[in-house]
Specification:
The complex is a heterodimer of chains A (about 110) and B (about 850). Chain A has about 110 residues and is mainly beta. Chain A has one domain: Rieske Iron-sulfur Protein (3-layer Sandwich), CATH 2.102.10.10. Chain A is built from no helices and nine strands. The radius of gyration of chain A is 13 Å and the shape is globular. By secondary structure, chain B is of the alpha/beta class. In chain B, the strands form eleven sheets. In chain B, strands 5-2-1-9-21 form a five-stranded parallel beta sheet. A five-stranded parallel beta sheet of chain B has the order 11-18-12-13-14. In chain B, strands 23-24-27-26-25 form a five-stranded antiparallel beta sheet. In chain B, α21 packs antiparallel against α22 and α24 packs across α27. The chains are: A mainly beta (about 110), B alpha/beta (about 850). At the A-B interface, β1, β2, β5 and β9 of A face α20 and β39 of B. Bound molecules: siroheme (SRM), flavin-adenine dinucleotide, iron/sulfur cluster and FE2/S2 (inorganic) cluster. The site of siroheme (SRM) has 20 residues of chain B, from β34.
């Protein structure tokens, strides 16, 4: 990785607006990003499109640190964006850097 | 050249099979016609026992359907009786006078049940056990409950009594001698059987001679010679069968006890052949199917000239009893006699009894009770007639032990069987053929059945086929057996978890996961929706529905589409709509640019391509016109399909439309294990297709037939008749009670059809029979409806402030105004 890359953080909303064990969608010029809030209280962001057939991951059931795609039930890791389980190795969704600061969600969207 | 004409008389087991065997060998040579007195196509008569016991449906036992015959170019005349055979003209005459010419004629006339000439034998309620008609009559009688007497303690009589007991009757078997099934069992096994039957609700009276059947017009009881009177509202005579020979006799063929045939199955007329129970071969008449399959194979070889030398040499017989949970097998000469030695094994603790009979170092007979897996192996040894001197010491312990001690190392009994061991006697399938079928990719019992027919007839070799699946596929098969865990987060199956929720009063998803030792922190997308449902069903008031554990459609109250948009289906009660509703829908379509409107298969309109953020506003507009969510997306009541009914239709017997509306109004909004569809038809023409719905009503003059467990979709299943009621109020009451029973008992994602297949129709009938039970179910249903019968659209579409979860958290796209967003960003980011 090039150490000189500077991440630009963008505030996208209050952490409390993303439901526990749920997700919200953020529209960007690169496509929609899904922000997740897991059972462990952590937040993750990945692009809101399933590597299978672009299913909106923000509508899936969130379990552990993964989400089940609402269209055909692939399980996608929120940490790595990789498809898990039976579909492992079949595809990956880009991960978006995320930071929580003072109750605000900051996404590292460089464009 | 015109094809040679084959005519088959009798469309029973032998009839269907001979046609199949001929076509298998040559499907171009003959023009085949088949005539059967029964109005239906060919079914597996053996399976009438499980049908009677409610363990199978008639549809499941059809072996050669009308479509099968049609698609094979076989002309059928079902419901026709052959009056006579004109050998000079070479044609047969049907009861309506039409004639059908033949070049070769095959008789498969079966046999007739023997009716004892007792006084009262012609009263109504006295039936035999031979065909579907008899089973129907028994089922009808059993619906009223009460007592049944079966005369005859042979295979047929016991299966009849067991079936009736399972259907809730008090069943008594009257048997002439002192051992049940004395032609197949020795006394010890007979006693164990008596006890096993008693545990299943069948009482036996042995050494009893019947004197008279009592009753005015309908049977009321049976009087025995010793003066005892056994009350009964149904009397089944199962005292034996007699080959059906009349048409052959009248045509002048040689007939003794049966129609006499040679080893090529030819009668005394070289153009006429016979197979099945109607024949007498080398002096023997058979009453089981295994010999019939042998006969059919021989005859097909002869007729198609596939093997002109083919000859039938008679069959050894083995019997298994088809009473669930009773393992019983008997083969050959089991009662010893001159020069015979017995080896006996008993284990009273496990209720196991085995006895093998040896003569001149050959195995000649076996009786097994309580543990019958080695039956096929013994039967094979009997048929082969090889010396068993070397394995004599271990013979009684079965094949696994015998082979293990002989130096081979079988991992299980069946694994050690030689490939040519017969596994399925009914269809003559060997172990090698089953294993070949499995390795060809048939990795489930059903697939094996469909592919090589093993276990597809009487089903008693099912255990062996399963063992073969297990040892051929290893762990991958094991995974499918045993109580299946709900998902990989737990080792418990649905039933156990559900029980724990109720008994341990678990009231939240985390509580359940804690108490049941879930291996994942918050489950997965398969167990959470199930737990959410189980909890809301068990505790309608205390539990709060968890949207995070619901599939997207149920969370967003619309059906997600492949492009991420949604479809919206408002309810149209019973398929009715109005100008006002249609106008509101039209306005919504215009206002929100809805790309497509479609009439669904459920008699209502579907609006496709609605954007998620528009959903609340669409709902608000539909609500304003009085419409509510159609739950087209939910594990819940979908639609109630109706037909026109007595209000307009010239055939209508009741107001099916009105009833449909009432059914929908009573049950909408209630969450269920899976989707639930209903229909009400105004007469048996059944225009609303009520007999493929989860709950269907077919109106008739005298009231309402209530049908349950229908399903179209991937596996079509026709409903079972639940009951018939006289009034609309009762129909509504039964519908709610049925829904509640289904809600409380079925596993999540189990529709009524597989649920009923699993628990049996009798369970459902038993659960609903008692008016008090029904009332309690209805009360619990109504309590749940108090909470859940609310329109989710109205809840989420308050016109003033649409729920923010339907819109994005933020929109960072260039040139998009942030104003309309529902974010709560107060402070700008640093
Ligand atoms: C819209 C409709 C097709 C149509 O245009 O006519 C439809 C559309 C869908 N059906 Fe259906 N089914 C529709 C009537 C039927 C019918 C006919 C009926 O109900 O009379 C059947 C067979 C009857 C039955 O269920 O027994 C039917 C059997 C299925 C099945 C197979 C169910 C089964 O038990 O095998 C599925 C798959 C499932 O549920 O898992 C299914 C699933 C679906 C889904 C939900 C697929 C999905 O998961 O996205 C489709 C949703 C489309 C949408 O966005 O609305 N649909 N579907 C019908 C809606 C009826 C309604 O008004 O609510
Ligand atoms: C309840 C029950 C359980 C059984 N269980 C077993 C078991 O576990 N194992 C086993 O091996 N066997 C069992 N059997 C016996 C087995 O079903 C029979 O051996 C087999 O059905 C005989 O076949 P078939 O074709 O000869 O006669 P059927 O199957 O009786 O067929 C004869 C057909 O010919 C028709 N017919 C007769 N005369 C005419 C005519 N003149 N014109 C037109 N049609 C005519 C009849 O209507 C009938 O449909 C059982 C039988 C019953 C009733
Ligand atoms: S049959 Fe049903 S599930 Fe299949 S494409 Fe049509 S609507 Fe979709
Ligand atoms: S689009 Fe996600 S699983 Fe198919």
């Amino acid at each position: 990785m090039n150490a000189s890359v500077v991440i630009h953080w963008t505030d996208v909303g209050a952490a409390s607006d993303v439901p526990y064990q749920g997700a919200r969608r953020v529209e960007t010029d690169l496509g929609a990003v899904a922000v997740f809030h897991t059972v462990s209280g952590e937040y993750f962001a990945i692009f809101d499109r399933c590597p299978h057939k672009n299913g909106p991951l923000s509508e899936g059931i969130v379990h552990g640190k993964a989400v089940a795609c609402p269209l055909h039930n692939w399980s996608i890791s929120l940490e790595t964006g990789q498809a898990l389980g039976a579909d492992a190795g079949k595809g990956c969704t880009p991960v978006v850097p995320l930071m929580i600061e003072d109750g605000r969600i900051l996404l590292g969207l460089n464009s | 050249m015109t094809k040679e004409k084959i005519v088959v008389i009798g469309a029973g087991m032998a009839g269907g099979r001979i046609v199949e065997e001929i076509l298998k060998r040559d499907d171009t040579k003959f023009e085949i016609s088949i005539i059967g007195a029964e109005a239906c196509a060919t079914y597996d008569r053996i399976q009438l026992s499980p049908v009677l016991a409610g363990e199978k449906t008639f549809e499941q036992i059809v072996t050669h359907s009308q479509e099968w015959y049609d698609s094979n170019g076989v002309k059928t005349h079902f419901g026709y009786w052959v009056q006579s055979i004109d050998r000079a003209m070479k044609h047969v005459v049907l009861h309506d006078g039409q004639t059908i010419a033949y070049d070769k004629l095959i008789l498969t006339l079966g046999s007739d049940p023997i009716r004892l000439p007792l006084p009262g034998a012609d009263l109504s309620g006295v039936v035999a056990f031979r065909d579907l008609h008899d089973v129907d009559a028994m089922q009808k009688a059993a619906e009223k409950g009460g007592e049944a007497v079966v005369i005859g303690g042979g295979l047929l009589g016991l299966e009849a009594a067991y079936g009736l007991a399972k259907r809730g009757m008090k069943a008594t078997v009257i048997h002439l001698v002192d051992v049940l099934m004395e032609r197949q069992l020795d006394e010890a096994a007979g006693r164990l059987l008596e006890k096993a039957l008693l545990e299943r609700g069948v009482n036996s009276i042995l050494n009893a001679q019947s004197e008279a059947i009592l009753g005015e017009t309908h049977v009321e009881g049976l009087k025995l010679k010793d003066g005892r009177i056994i009350p009964a509202s149904l009397l089944v005579m199962a005292v034996g069968i007699r080959p059906h020979v009349e048409p052959a006799k009248a045509a002048g063929l040689t007939v003794e006890r049966g129609i006499v045939v040679d080893d090529q199955m030819r009668t005394s007329d070289p153009s006429i052949f016979a197979v099945g129970e109607c024949v007498q071969h080398r002096g023997v008449c058979y009453g089981l199917v295994a010999p019939i399959w042998d006969m059919c194979r021989t005859l097909a070889d002869v007729l198609t000239e596939a093997n002109v030398e083919a000859a039938y040499a008679g069959s050894e017989l083995a019997t298994r009893l088809k009473v669930s949970g009773v393992d019983l097998y008997s083969a050959g000469q089991f009662n010893g006699g001159e020069g015979c030695e017995d080896i006996v094994f008993r284990d009273p603790g496990r209720g196991v009894y085995k006895r093998v009979v040896i003569k001149n170092d050959q195995l000649v007979g076996a009786v097994l009770f309580g543990e019958a897996t080695d039956g096929g192996w013994y039967f094979d040894l009997i048929k082969k007639g090889e010396s068993v001197a070397e394995i004599r010491d271990t013979l009684i312990f079965g094949q696994a032990v015998t082979n293990a001690l002989a130096g081979t190392d079988p991992s299980s009994a069946v694994a050690a069987w030689p490939d040519d061991t017969e596994v399925c006697g009914c269809n003559g399938v060997s172990k090698g053929q089953v294993v070949a079928s499995i390795t060809a990719g048939n990795d489930t019992l059903d697939k094996v059945r469909g592919h090589c027919k093993a276990s597809a007839s009487c089903g008693s070799c099912t255990g062996i086929v399963e063992s073969l699946l297990k040892c051929t596929l290893g762990d991958s098969f094991k995974a499918q057996t045993g109580p299946k865990p709900m998902c990989k987060c737990t080792e418990h199956g649905h039933a156990v978890v559900r029980k724990a929720i109720v008994e341990q009063e678990l009231k939240t998803i985390p509580d359940v996961m804690q108490a049941m030792k879930w291996t994942t922190p918050d489950g997965c997308s398969s167990c959470r929706p199930a737990l959410n449902y189980y909890l809301l069903c068990a505790w309608p008031r205390a539990y709060h529905d968890d949207p995070r554990s619901r599939f997207v459609n149920e969370r967003n109250h619309a059906n997600i589409q492949k492009d991420g948009t949604y479809s919206v289906v408002p309810r149209m009660w019973g398929g009715l709509t109005s100008a006002k509703e249609l106008r509101a829908i039209a306005d919504v379509v215009d206002k929100f640019n809805v790309p497509m409107v479609k009439v669904t298969g459920g008699q209502r309109l579907d609006l496709f391509g609605v954007k998620k953020e528009d959903l609340p506003a669409v709902w608000a507009d539909l609500n304003a016109a009085g419409m509510v969510s159609g739950h087209a997306y939910a594990k819940a009541l979908r639609t109630v399909k109706t037909c026109v009914g007595s209000e307009w239709c010239r055939f209508g017997t009741q107001d099916s439309t009105g009833l449909g509306v009432k059914l929908e109004q009573a049950t909408w909004g209630s969450y269920m294990p899976h989707k639930f569809k209903m229909a009400a038809s105004g007469c048996p023409r059944n225009c609303a297709e009520a007999t493929i719905k989860d709950f269907g009503v077919v109106c008739v003059d005298s009231g309402y037939e209530l049908h349950v467990g229908g399903n179209a979709g991937i596996h079509v299943r026709v409903t079972d008749l639940l009951t018939k009621v006289a009034t609309e109020e009762e129909a509504l009451e039964w519908s709610m009670a049925f829904v509640q029973l289904y809600r409380e008992d079925a596993w999540y994602l189990e529709r009524t059809a597989p649920w009923i297949e699993r628990v049996g129709l009798q369970f459902v009938k038993d659960g609903l029979a008692d008016p008090a039970d029904r009332a309690a179910l209805v009360a619990r249903f109504k309590e749940s409806q108090d909470v859940y019968q609310v329109d989710p659209w109205a809840e989420h579409a308050p016109k003033s402030a649409p729920a923010k979860v339907f819109s994005p958290l933020a929109d960072l796209r260039q040139g998009v105004s942030q104003d309309h967003l529902q974010t709560q960003a107060q402070e700008p980011a640093e």
